Amino acid sequence: MSGGTEPPGAASEPDVQAELLEQALSERKALINLCLYAMDRARSSGVVERLEAGLAELGVSAVRPDGERFDPAHHEAGGTQPTEDPALDGLVAETELAGFTDRGLPLRPPIVIVYAS
């Protein structure tokens, strides 16, 4: 139509673009969650490595805080590992299930085993 008017009920171009962007972001989130689900259940380390590499190309990074100080704000404790060494007390002994961030924003925390004296 001429004069910049649109038929009643027609969406403007910016509205359509915003709707498509919202849909794409929602679909991206669903695909990332599907990949994480598949990684958790994959029996092949090669499949896990390939999925992790593919996610990294999209800005989704694995978090394995082994050797770091346990922080309940960023880690989920899955259990403890006894230690006699006071220097290890409170450190992450190993990561049971990798956590993930999406461009630095947390998707899920890693589940870790924590040294405890």
TrEMBL record:
Pfam families: GrpE
A single GO BP: protein folding
InterPro entries the UniProt entry points to: GrpE, GrpE_head
Basic and acidic residues bias: start-end ranges: 65-77
SUPFAM superfamilies: Head domain of nucleotide exchange factor GrpE
Domain of life: Bacteria
Annotated signal peptide: none
Name of the molecule in the record: Nucleotide exchange factor GrpE
Single GO term (MF): protein-folding chaperone binding
Keyword Repressor: no
Keywords: Chaperone
Positions of region (Disordered): 65-87
Native organism taxonomy: Bacteria, Bacillati, Actinomycetota, Actinomycetes, Pseudonocardiales
